[in-house]
Amino acid sequence: MRVSRPATLSLRAVGLLYLAGLLLLPVGVVLVRTFDHGLGQAWGWMTTPAAISALWLTIAIAAIAVPLNTIFGVGCSLVLVRGRARGRAILDSLIDLPFVVSPVIVGLALILVYGQDGWFGNWFLNNGIRIIYAPAGIVIATVFVSLPFVVREVAPILMEVGEEQEEAAATLGASGWQTFWRVTLPSIRWGVAYGVVLTTARALGEIGAVLVVSSNVAGSTLTLPLLVYQRDSQLGPQAITGAYAAATELIVLSLAVLLLMTLLGSRREVTK
Amino acid sequence: MSSSSSYAAPRAPAGWRARVRVPRGTLSLGVATLYMSVIVLIPLAAVVEKAVAQGPGAFFDSVTASGAVSALVITLVASLVVAAIGAVMGTLVAWILARDKFPGQRLVNSLIDLPFALPTIVAGLTLIALYGPRSPFGLHLAYARAGVLLALLFVTLPFVVRAVQPVLIELDPEAEEAAASLGASNATIFRRIVLPSLRPAIASGAALAFARAVGEFGALVLIAGKVQIASIVIFADIESDATQAAASLSVVLLVISLIVLVLLRWPGARNAR
Amino acid sequence: MTLRTRFRASRTLPVLAALGLAGGLAACGGSADTNGGSSGSTAGKTQLNLVGYSTPKKAYDKLIDAFEATPDGRSVTFSTSFGASGSQSRAVATGQPADVVAFSTTPDITRLVKAGVVSSSWDANPQKGIANDSVVVLVVRKGNPKHITGWDDLIKPGVDVITPNPSTSGSARWNVLAAYGSQLKEGKSPAEALAYVNTLLTKHVSVQDTSGSAATQTFVGGKGDVLLSYESEAISAKKAGDPIEYFVPKQTILIETPIAVTSKSAHPQQAQAFVNWLWTTAGQTLWAKSGYRPVLPSVLSKYASKFPTPPQLFTIASLGGWTQVTKTFFAPSTGLITKIEQAAGVPTASS
Q: Which of the following CATH numbers is that of domain B56-265: 1.20.120.80, 3.30.160.60, 1.10.3720.10, 3.50.50.60?
């Protein structure tokens, strides 16, 4: 289809204006507004004790959730694609659930299981294990919402790559582990990396479920997104600058994630 | 290696597995299912149980309460509108990324994934900053339905674009060239040849956008106190100890999302996201 | 190293690192969220956990800084948590560590007494366990374009009132009780007063946010003609330069926000020292400077112009006390206000 020049230009203009107004400008306004009262003020907001704990807590929680979901993701992809067991199709459909469940429902679900008078909550509380209103609850919620990414990135690659190399390795006498480590893993590594990046982004940004199960204690349950929420509910232009400052930290993290996504995305295309 | 050159079949497992024909990967499937159950399935089951534990009457009452009904209607309408706008604008954006060529195109391409990388609460904050009461341009949309639509368009932007883009790139230009040589106008070519090929991708992208919009919370919690969004109502219910009401409304949302998931899988053409 | 051990190490290493990171959090950062506040070393100091409702967060941050400069406070450091009063109370009831709790309504403390976390004699002191006071005020746009002068103007046609949801917000309960009580003070019967509240909530409140500060943000953002709020919130908003004015109506309720030391506290003496300090002239003066009414009469009189006394001020006691009020008005499903809210389509406690 050869589109005329004016039409091309107008399509381009409409598209870019839409993207600018929807994506760039809002993010830009926050970045600029963070420094409304000067660099010192903004830095002060980013380095309050609560902000520092919030940043480390958010990273620490991601550092727990991401490896768990990566191990699950790779193992589950192998089962779904290379396995022969019955019931794989059901597992496959269920994996998409975290994509469509609203985060508040996740929070509610965890309270109903682990909270006081929940399914197992009283057992945990009687044994001194606090899940709801404690860091463990936030970890479980984060694992829930970021569960499917690695599977959904690795499984298609496994399917495309095919079993020939693995079968060859088996005939050469390689054990299961050796085959996995030397043959399978290298063929899926960019998919795993991309999935890990997506999982990390989702884990860093979780707010809905965390808002429900958190006790808002800086250092143990106050994550950075939660800090943004908290600061935004305080009154006064000072507080909103604080919210923007915390948001800027998250924007910087997201841009790093976006960069990784772009780099790994192209690598992933190459190996496909 | 011995000199044997015959194909050696994979060693048969020893022990009980050799006698019982267990398909490969059963144990791993069990482990994966256990993980899924503990993390996802059991908690969701608890929500369903809470919703119906007091009997179907109580569940029915909760979901037909005027607050719940208006929240559902508003949420569904907003999500449908967003899916529709997203379908059109997403296709347009995919078009300029796939068929056009301009400086900075690769940067724009990466930016499409920004809503996936950015925490939703930051998305909400950025939209209030630009379109809310303290806006630099004097706009006041945040406290109206327009604000909700903007937030939802933000978070669902990549779905349609990323669904349509690869299809557009793969499209065989032959059919279009043939039509052009027969004298068809661009509009006709688009309508008759390009669009039908794109339709499944647009539909699946829009469906994903819809499913995501229905459950969105983080981008709306700072904006939408004035518009009764279902996820916010569920949150308010939880905070006021109305857990049965929260669970009931949640079950309705879950059912809607599941229906969309099933519809997406039927044609067999599945998206990676 | 064989392939197998190498593989295992690369799997366990990130997990170990993560656990170490999480464990090391205790040493990293702190809890105060004041820009430019003191962040001295916490080595060797006793840590007290303050669990409070969200509104007075800024005030408590200032009070904690001032307390830590006193002789009693030098050996103490604070970890704070602020959020919706109800959820915070529930969290402490299920075991969240707390030495001092400060909530927006007394029932949130009573819940802890029932859970055995706070002693039943928490209010057996001259201040009756109340940290500070405020009053419900009417906040309007600058210039008062709709000429609101009192409660009766709120139900005039075309007036849109902003108030949060009483099921989720302590602030909202005070607002509703102020509305109800104001009618009683005007000489109406309880039935007429309830009818007034019904009209107000169903016909004149377009939206009910989950918290007081959310409602304030809604109003400041341009929605509604009148905001029902704590006086302290109105003072903050005005100080922040928002284009609003507020006035104390002739009839209004005294908002008494309770504070208590928990019986499970590991450092009861230091915790009590903090609470006692809040009741000294120094502490009460800081409350006054932050926009809250002091409970110490000597300090209140000094700030009389900032905190005018309304001619027909009433308290929760005149309405029957919290236990009675909660049962009559806010009980799930059967409470009078709960029923009004359900009819208005607002989420309420139902189980």
A: 1.10.3720.10
